[in-house]
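Hi, here's the filled form for the chain we discussed.

Project: internal
Contact: R.S.
Residues: 365
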Amino acid sequence: MALRCGIVGLPNVGKSTIFNALTASSIPAENYPFCTIEPHMGIVPLPDDRLAKLEKIFNPEKVTPATVEFTDIAGLVRGASKGEGLGNQFLSQIRQVAAIVHVVRCFEDDNVVHVEGRVDPVRDAELIETELLLADLDTLEKSVYRLTKLAKKEKGAQKELDVVSRLKTHCDAGHMARTFKADAEESAIIRTLFLLTRKPILYVANVDEDEITHDKRNPYVQALFDFARKENNLAIRLCGKIEQEIAILDDEGKAMFLEEYNLPEPGLNKLIHAGFNLLELETYFTGGPIEVRAWTIKQGASAPEAAGEIHTDFQKGFIKAEVIKYDDLVRLGSEKNVKDAGLALLQGKEYTVQDGDCIYFHFNV
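And the returned structure, exactly as it came back:
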């Protein structure tokens, strides 16, 4: 399932450092604007403790986790919506992602230039949101102009014009497109516009090592969290520098590092899970002697849709889904024990797959 999170922010806030840690890659992370010109992509495994328990039960040849795809998009600046700082190119890259991870600088460092002159996370967050909104208003204005002409010739265009006009009024008042109330039919119309402010946002407060290792929370972080809450967006805190150090270590080294700094897990795990949730994704499992695998589906997917993630033939020829709950499988220790207990249920086309379901599909093509 090719759904991506785009990592955005002002220059020098730590975007590429965090992306490097996510992908253990070597994308440049220099101390000057626009060092990331082309968008870089990385596919990152979703940390999931359930896979280790399923591996013990099935003893497979391999284990395949779910993944999240991240794109590192170069730094936006004030005026990006008007083309400043290669803005048009960067905004077009954001249009291609399903959700936005907005890295915001929440640390002081005289050696790292701030493009706006001083650290102010709320101003920085608002600046990026404003640039995205201005770009959307330009899109909406062009759409209203086109639909107004079209509605004179085609009656069907009037509905689209009404929806887009109401949305433009909403955004003209400074509101993001994601807060516009729309029914299913209206949402389908709005989706065709690929608006930037309709995408869900996760704010990442990038802090220094001292804050993480001593579990402090500076006023910058609190201000950003309050802003995110007001905007109905999510926010997490991590230290990009520490995460990059952890990312290059082997498993033993990571464990020692986390223990030394009294950290329960890498902060990136929170980011990866938050990105997965931001995309409204969940996982189900298949298991056997060949492979235990986590499959990625949209929340609310039906059994045939979930089957289609394995192969289109599974969806076309879907008959039944044999569903075992993960907790039952772990508690009873094997598929046979679950079936003997009468807890393996056959589900039809209307079944909505739940996160963690272990499924065997019956199909015929």
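Let me know if anything looks off before we file it.
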